Amino acid sequence: MDTFDQLLYGFGVALSPENLAFVFLGCLIGTVIGMLPGLGPISAISLMIPVAFTLDPASAIIMLAGVYYGAIFGGSTSSILLNAPGVAGTVATSFDGYPMARKGAAGKALAIAAFASFTGGTVGVIGLMLVAPSLSALTVSFGPAEYFALMVLGLTAVVSLSGQNLTKGLVSATVGVMIALVGIDSQTSTLRFTFGRPELYEGVQFLIVALGVFALAEVFVMVLRRGRDAQSGTLTSLRLNRREIRRMSGPTGRGSVLGFLVGVLPGAGATVASFLAYSFEKRIAKDGDTFGKGNIKGVAAPESANNGAAVGSFVPLMTLGVPGSGTTAVLLGALLVLGVQPGPLMLEERPEIFWGVVASMYVGNLVLLILNLPLIPLFAKVLRTPQTLLVPLIVVFCVVGVYGQSFSVFDLWLLTGFGVLGFLMRSNGFPAAPLILGLILGGLMERSMRQALLISSGDFSTFLTKPISAALLAVAALSLLGSVAGPWRRRAAARRAAAAGAPLPAGGPPRESGGPAAGPAAEGAEAVPDPGSAESEDRPEAPGHGAARDPDAFMGGVTSNGTDRDG
């Protein structure tokens, strides 16, 4: 059979009444669990595995797959409304989604996330259908050296996530990498930075850091600005106008393709894809200075990327039997227990499973859109909750999410510590996004580097002699050089203009981040206007003072957080 006939066969499997019910059930459960901080795709699938063991293998994997991409789809809700990204793949969504919600555009932010997620998932399914066999061959060509280079390229996103102060962004990223190194060294079994605490032997969990530096830090800010209820305004409509649809279409398309390609690589996953998509869009956007202040591109790009990557991770799982993430590792275990051996022969031996899953993803993405869009007005009403109720609600989410994973009081103390750290970072202009990026990529980069050096007997030239690795490192170096050289050229041009007697641009010399300061009302900006704020609240602060003077400048305020796993 050709591809079209195989897809029709898959739809025959997916559209049977029982499998339609399992698609709906998986998407519903995944969406609900994805909305709850602390319960990501792995937890959702683990909860459904006992049910899956009682089903036919095709129905079981169709349901579990629905739980997976449903959790990624629904994870944006808590990130946008509460700034509590319990799923790592939706951290980047909170950078602009939460500021939109704070400005009364929660419904619009959720609608953008829903449409971008649907597009990313659909593009991923098309890619899975058309190019899975050929892309699986590309996956095999990626060894430790290539993965190290890919992680280095991912870390160059710190330039885009650092706002107006690259030095502070690099400090934050370094702290994130240091946190990633805590625990037992997987190769030498050496204890590192545990301070004699057995609770740190397995390292610091991502969820603790993410909820601490984002959600709990937001609680501290809410407490300090009590009486200034910025979230009590009227919520704007979720309807998108033509201009907004046109502006989000490019980032959505690019993020979908990039997310799928990154998802194909085992070990990369939705988190890396979402950060790369966000960083790329901020670099190429004319209104890049408004990212982190409620730019719709900053919601569309990572949401399409993480859903595209979630589907893309099925390529190595189905065609090679190689799990690309923690979630697909659980899915692989479920397949093996059900008597299904993923690999190159799966398309011939068990076509009902491969093509049934592919077709069910088409159906599942439509089900997710139908499920989420009508509920957006209900979700958005969370922001009308008085802060006296919202603050305890966020604290309960954080505590339950962290304690439910390990049942450790020590982890709650860690959560508090990272909450204080996140608040201090915001107050002093240190962006939180590079810290999260360093935490996610630090461990992966170290493991890949050590494996590559072990294979090459300690020869560092192995990273430059492999074509793919050398190309990725070259792109990373050019990216960094271009970002560092840009401000130098602008300052030199400003000095030459001053020396020649030419008037400086309005607002003074260009800023470090490139170009004059641009608030949400600047020409070409897409930041959502704050319907309830005074005009003076949107004016740029003097450099170095925005974060300290305005604790509301979270996730991309004037100077604090310029932008600021699947499981």
Task: Give a quick rundown of the structure.
The protein is mostly helical and 567 residues long. Helix content is 66%, strand content 1%. α4 (57-82) packs antiparallel against α13 (297-312), α5 (91-102) packs antiparallel against α13 (297-312) and α10 runs antiparallel to α19 (387-406).
3D architecture notes:
The protein is mainly α and 567 residues long. Helix content is 66%, strand content 1%. It has 24 helices and two strands. A two-stranded antiparallel sheet has the order 1-2.
Low-confidence stretches: 229-234, 506-567
Number of helices: 24
The proportion of residues in beta strands is under 5%
Order of helices and strands: HHHHHHHHHEEHHHHHHHHHHHHHHH
Q: Spatial order of the strands in the main sheet?
A: 1-2
The overall pLDDT average reads 77
Number of E-state strands: 2
Give the overall shape, derived from the CA principal axes.
Answer: globular
Biggest beta-sheet profile: 2 strands, antiparallel
First-residue to last-residue Cα separation: 35 Å
Keywords:
567 residues, mainly alpha, two-stranded antiparallel ribbon, 1% strand, disordered C terminus
SSE blueprint and pairings:
Layout (H helix, E strand, L loop, with lengths): L2 H12 L2 H19 L5 H12 L4 H26 L8 H12 L3 H35 L3 H12 L2 H4 L4 H15 L2 E2 L6 E2 L13 H19 L17 H23 L4 H16 L12 H16 L1 H7 L5 H12 L8 H4 L1 H22 L3 H5 L6 H20 L2 H19 L5 H23 L6 H4 L1 H33 L46 H4 L18
Antiparallel strand pairs: 1-2
